[in-house]
């Protein structure tokens, strides 16, 4: 009989572990250089009076077994609050033991308790295993949507448009 994960809300003391988990994703996708966050970034933005995210940590016999990091979202089309899952990760050692599913169940319960009615996430196009997992548990690919993003200098330029009179 395998141990079920104990799931708890992350605290500021977990910032280093959260960053290590995020790095697992980068390594898994073969793009570790894309992870530029620091544990200090996570401490500064994820905890305190107005946290930018919530994270749940799964542990099995006291050992880190996974995490789900998410933040509040609002659907103007549905007229409902929900959450966007930024990162869900389970170290290789604990995969296949129901940890990810347990984290998603707990995340959904947390979001519902705060008045939310949905979860959304995106999956790296190359991560077929994750795509199959999400579909298996009932999350549906939204083929009518595409994610667009702006970062770095392009974001700075866009943000500066206000100052130039636009």
What average pLDDT do the residues reach? 93
What global shape is seen? globular
**What is the terminal separation in angstroms?**
63 Å
Give the helix tally: 5
Element order: H for helix, E for strand? EHHEEEHEHH
Strand order of the largest sheet: 1-2-3-4-5
The share of residues in helices is: 25-40%
Based on CA atoms alone, the radius of gyration comes out at 17 Å
Based on helices, strands and strand pairing, what is the structural class? alpha+beta
Q: Pick out the low-confidence regions.
A: none
Q: What fraction of the residues are assigned to beta strands by DSSP? A: 15-25%
List keywords for this structure.
166 residues, five-stranded mixed beta sheet
Describe the protein in words.
33% of the residues lie in helices and 22% in strands. The protein is α+β, with helices and mostly antiparallel strands. It contains 5 helices and 5 strands, in the order βααβββαβαα. It has a 5-stranded mixed sheet, sandwiched between helices. The protein is globular.
Outline the fold blueprint.
Elements: E1 6-9, H1 15-28, H2 39-46, E2 54-60, E3 63-75, E4 80-89, H3 99-113, E5 119-121, H4 128-136, H5 152-160
Helix pairs in contact: 1-2
Summarize this, please?
The protein has 166 residues and is α+β, with helices and mostly antiparallel strands. The chain is 33% helix and 22% strand. The radius of gyration is 17 Å and the shape is globular.
């Amino acid at each position: 009989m395998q141990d079920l994960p104990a799931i708890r809300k992350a605290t500021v003391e977990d910032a280093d572990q959260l960053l290590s988990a995020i790095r697992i994703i980068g390594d898994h996708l073969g793009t570790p250089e894309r992870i530029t966050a620091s544990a200090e970034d996570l401490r500064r933005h994820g905890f305190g009076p107005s946290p930018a995210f919530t994270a749940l940590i799964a542990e099995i016999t006291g050992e880190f077994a996974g995490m789900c990091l998410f933040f509040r979202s609002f659907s103007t089309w549905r007229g409902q609050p929900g959450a966007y899952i930024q990162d869900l990760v389970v170290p290789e050692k604990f995969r296949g033991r129901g940890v990810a599913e347990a984290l998603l169940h707990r995340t959904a319960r947390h979001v519902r308790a705060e008045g939310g009615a949905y979860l959304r996430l995106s999956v790296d196009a190359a991560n077929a295993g994750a795509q199959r997992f999400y579909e298996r548990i009932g999350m549906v690919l939204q083929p009518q949507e595409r994610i667009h993003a702006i970062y770095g200098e392009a974001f700075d330029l866009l943000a500066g448009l206000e100052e130039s009179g636009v």
